[in-house]
Amino acid sequence: METLQDVLRGSTHKEVDYVQYFIFFPPGQTNEETVSKLQNQRIVITDFIQPWIRDYLWQKDRFSLSIGYDDRNDPAYPFLYGVTRFGDCVNDQWFIIYLLREISKKLPETVISVADNDGEILLIEAALELPEWLDPMTSRNRVFIHQGLVHIIPLPSTPADIIEIPIAGKLQRQRAIELVRQQRVHTQADPPVQEAILERIREYPQAAQTERHRSRCILPKQAAFVLLKEPQLLPLAVEAFYIRDPLSLKACATMRQFPPANHNLVSTITTFTRTTFAQTVSQKFYPPKPFHLPPVSQKKQHRAAELGMKLACGLEMLYANNWDKTDDEDATSYAFDRDPKWKEYVANVTRLGYFQGERQGSRLYRERLERAKEEYLKQRRLPASVTYEDVDVDDINTFAGSLPFGSMSPRKKIDAILATYSEEELQQMLETHDSEESDSEDWMHVDPQQLEDLLNKRMKRMQESVMADMDREIDQEEKSTEVDLDKMVANFEQFIEGSRSGVEGVQFPGERDSDDEFSEENEEDDELYDENEDAAVSFNMEKFMSILKGVMDDVQIPLQQQQQQQPDEPEIRKEEASADTESKDTLRTMMDEMDEEIYSHDKITASFADGTSEGMEEREDAPVNVRLNLVKNVLESFKSQQGLPGPVGNILHQFGVVLPADEDQPEESASDRK
Question: For the chain, which residues make up each domain, given as ranges?
Fold first, then answer.
């Protein structure tokens, strides 16, 4: 059952944004051999990227690599992996992708996979350039980074390809890694895909420096000392302030750790990231009781004091929150001298040149040794098994390897810094930073034209793709307007002659009855129908005319009975011939009367087209062109549907005929509608 504390903290809960990355090396003969190789390569990679990440301010977690196994045994050997939360700063995510690309160039035998909580981040970025077959269902285990390029394993296009490339949904990760590394199949993505990814990371690593923003703040001395000593605490303090809850605000009522008394305040230049600065200044926050800000009329002082007040409150809330603390084991308390594996670990990294020939006891040697201790302890704490999907973001151990201060919680880090606090050291740091100036905030204000230019730059590829799609649609519409009228008339004739109807509607020629019971009951009838299907169709005109007159008594007697007639058969034939002549005369008279009745009505006469060409004199006795009238009536009926479903539209759909919209029809005027 949730407590009140859980409910209050849940009021600010938001989805956790993270990026997950895996680096696969060629496996050794045994897992032990592979693990030993990975330990060495991890140190090599850390040392390789250190110049880029040394002063980088991470929004939440840092880039970090650990050794792990897949919980589904795919692949069956260990590998390097990491998972980093980047919060609202997507630049952290793309900086990590840049690092992974550089690692793949530095170590060409590696195959790297990267994804975030939304899926395949590389495919999302290059969505407009992807082949049509590639979607979230078919992209599983098919997208990798290898030797600085994006690789996409294609679907098999021939039966021979199935031997190398399994069908969609069947590709195992270990098999996919082998395909990319061995290059027996062309997996390198097309240039437009490569360019879309490169465009996103082209500005790194310089972009990591331009994302910083310096601004003057008035802070309590302890807060200024902590932030100047460890700048990585600033993003954590801003996050604590940005997602504050009622329980966290209780700590700001007293400010025990960072008291803002007048004699305890200093002014200094503080380095933010653009994301953290925007998060801080955008929040409307009334100062707690311990704070006394300058009047608003003193704009610069008020601005610096307000910004410092928010940072100090964030630090106080960060210190008060104990729910994110980690293992108490750290590099200062662990007995490294008693751990034989640590000695073996140091020997391996020394052989790889990790210490770069520095003498033991030198400053650079001590720095690298401390970093190696943190990496060693981090690997000891992490679980051996990892998962690719459904990352448990609520488990702090999931991100234990990427926490900013390794095994130390932010609270312990603050305590360790404050333990070394001195007024002299604070003054030295203040003098160093006072030489810097605040950066312009113009980047936070975007006018409509700048926004338009930015959108045009970002949406250029999308606009080109949309225009290409529109051109294809126009071509298809132009092709669809070419209607074969002869084929349409033939389909109608076949429909009239070959269709059957029942209680469920019309059954078109070629359709099978869906009612199995009905089919079984009529199976014998169908067989008889099939036997006589090719038989000649006979039509008795005299019987048909007799039925029209209602004179059924004049039907000729069957041939069998005629053979049994008496010798006065000639006289009977004469009487029948006389009756037939009278019937024909009567029918002709009746048809003439019907024609006269029809021609006397102008509307009925005008409804039939006789096929007379324009300019020719119309004749009353001109024959009616049945096919022409059929086409005319179909088009008029389709036009009357006004784009809505209707009988003609449904029948034409069954024929596969698509009639174009009547764009030339003039709109009705207001007077006509009235």
Answer: 12-206, 211-325+437-444, 539-606
